[in-house]
């Protein structure tokens, strides 16, 4: 085995940095039995003649597709709480490992945060919680106090490591007083509060900006067709379109905000939801694109939305891993379906849910997810890296923001995706989706390498 990236205290970092500069093709490998966990292999693969009779992946940088914004996680309030409970030195080392892209660090480049509480916070809250029967149309009592306790300090530490990281904000619910049922769970947004809720977003973005945190984009509602979570909201596509065109879009324009507005943020079984909104030209003018999860439906549905509205972007923003986890199955599915599948279907991001939980998968709200395995399990200063950590590492470290997806064919049992980085490096992520070791060729500009992957393994191949 070569250099192990991603483990605190790993050795031979300088050797790993020197190896990266050598000519030829570098390989980082993860195997289902965990004998290799995003490990840099010592052997540099040299371009030569193809081996006859083997499958070949041909990489063509002349055919380009979407630009990539980044790969990462949701930094829930619960994740931020657990990070704050670490020692300052241990937290600093872990955040560097996660968010720096040099040396033995994995280079997370995109984060999703909740606007108010998600179901993986220790308590339910909004930024405008009032006594039952009260309302605050001018949002005079708006406060980011909950976020200032844990989330904002962690974000500031992350931004000190990577000032360019993109942050997406998603609400799980408006304040209860804006809803038909006056409750954090379920209900719908009352049309009479559309303008107030639009200003709620504006105040959030400006409040975070005052803390030195730029919110690159927002989704209007996490899982708008799942009102059974806590917090949650039911928001049908016609309601979301009306909210955008009547209130949110004009409010952003009046406030001179360039934060992107992203719609839907739910499962791939309902591509009709974002298409309905984008078919409304009044609403469409304010929309950057659509976001997806994959708890239902097929990843190919993203391409249906792209084909209906090719001028709008697509994002993959959430997928959980169920505790206690099955490393081989979870890692393989997420690489194949999300890192490869989502990006091959036009996604500019792939985000795992969520960054961290404790050994009991806490914290979570009453009625929140009780079995969501974090990319990290944090037990005080003890850090356990789970499958989503390595899923994101295989893409985030090398496919930096501004990279573009390029063409590659898919031989049987070798799903893959290729990218060209801003520094003109080529990155090819390949999975051996079979039960036996597989040898294959990688072809690029008339040159070829012959390589192999163990059964079920994933390799990230990098060359200049």
From TrEMBL:
GO terms for molecular function: glucosylceramidase activity. One of its GO terms (biological process) is glucosylceramide catabolic process. Residues 402-461 form the Glycosyl hydrolase family 30 beta sandwich domain. It comes from the Bacteria. It holds the Pfam family Glyco_hydro_30C. Coiled coil: none annotated. Keywords: Glycosidase, Hydrolase, Signal. Signal peptide: none annotated. Gene3D superfamilies: Glycosidases, Golgi alpha-mannosidase II. Residues 68-399 form the Glycosyl hydrolase family 30 TIM-barrel domain. Belongs to the glycosyl hydrolase 30 family. This is Glucosylceramidase. It comes from Adhaeribacter rhizoryzae. The lineage of its organism: Bacteria, Pseudomonadati, Bacteroidota, Cytophagia, Cytophagales.
């Amino acid at each position: 085995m070569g250099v192990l990236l991603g483990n605190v205290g790993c050795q031979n970092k300088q050797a790993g940095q020197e190896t990266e500069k050598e000519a030829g093709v570098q390989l980082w490998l993860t195997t289902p039995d965990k004998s290799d966990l995003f490990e840099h292999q010592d052997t540099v693969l040299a371009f030569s003649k193809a081996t006859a009779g083997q499958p070949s992946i041909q990489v063509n940088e002349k055919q380009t597709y979407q630009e990539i914004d980044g790969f990462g996680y949701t930094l829930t309030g619960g994740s931020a709480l657990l990070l704050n409970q670490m020692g300052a030195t241990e937290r600093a080392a872990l955040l560097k490992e996660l968010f720096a892209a040099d040396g033995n660090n994995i280079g997370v480049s995109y984060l999703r945060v909740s606007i108010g509480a998600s179901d993986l916070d220790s308590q339910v809250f909004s930024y405008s919680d009032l006594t039952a029967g009260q309302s605050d149309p001018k949002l005079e009592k708006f406060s980011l106090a909950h976020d200032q306790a844990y989330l904002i300090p962690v974000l500031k530490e992350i931004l000190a490591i990577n000032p360019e990281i993109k942050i997406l904000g998603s609400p799980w619910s408006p304040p209860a007083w804006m809803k038909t049922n006056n409750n954090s769970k379920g209900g719908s947004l009352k049309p009479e509060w559309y303008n107030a809720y639009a200003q709620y977003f504006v105040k959030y973005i400006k409040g975070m900006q005052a803390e030195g945190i730029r919110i690159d984009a927002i989704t209007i509602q996490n899982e708008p067709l799942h009102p059974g979570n806590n917090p949650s909201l039911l928001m049908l596509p016609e309601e979301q379109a009306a909210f955008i065109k009547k209130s949110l879009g004009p409010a952003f324009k009046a406030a001179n905000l360039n934060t992107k507005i992203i719609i839907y943020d739910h499962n791939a079984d309902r591509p009709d939801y974002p298409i309905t909104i984008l078919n409304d030209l009044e609403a469409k003018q304010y929309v950057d694109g659509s976001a997806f999860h994959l708890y239902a439906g097929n990843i190919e549905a993203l391409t249906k939305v792209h084909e209906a509205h090719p001028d709008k972007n697509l994002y993959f923003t959430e997928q959980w891993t169920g505790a206690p986890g099955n490393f081989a199955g979870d890692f393989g599915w997420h690489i194949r379906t999300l890192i490869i599948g989502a990006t091959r279907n036009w996604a500019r991001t792939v985000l795992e849910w969520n960054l961290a939980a404790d050994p009991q998968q806490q914290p979570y709200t009453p009625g929140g997810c009780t079995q969501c395995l974090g990319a990290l399990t944090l037990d005080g200063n003890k850090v356990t890296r789970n499958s989503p950590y390595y899923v994101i590492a295989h893409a985030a470290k090398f496919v930096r923001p501004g990279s573009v997806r390029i063409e590659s064919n898919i031989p049987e049992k070798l799903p893959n995706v290729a990218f060209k980085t801003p520094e003109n490096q080529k990155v090819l992520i390949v999975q051996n989706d079979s039960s036996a070791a597989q040898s294959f060729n990688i072809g690029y500009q008339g040159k070829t390498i012959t390589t192999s992957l163990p059964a079920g393994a994933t390799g990230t191949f990098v060359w200049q």
